[in-house]
TrEMBL record:
Name of protein: Uncharacterized protein
Domain of life the protein comes from: Bacteria
Amino acid sequence: MSTSFLEIIELSDGRLVLRRAEDETVLVTLDFSDQAKEFLQGQHIEIAKAMFSAGMQMAGKVVEDDYDTYGSDTVSRMLH
C-alpha cells in the first residue's frame, strides 16, 4: 500500500470510515449501533479513532513480521 494521508469521516448515515484523503477510497468502516452510542455517551468517535489506530498498528506489524519471516510482502494467510 502506498503512503498516503488517511482521514476518519462520519458519513450521513452515521457510519465512520477510514479512507485515503486524496482519492476517498474507503479502507475500513465502523458502524456503532444506537445502543452502543448511547452506552458510550457520545464518545463513539474517540473510540473509533482508537480502534482505527490499533488496527493500523497491527496491520503494520503483520506486514513487517511476514516480510521478516518470508522475505516477501505477498504471503497467503489462513483465517480461522
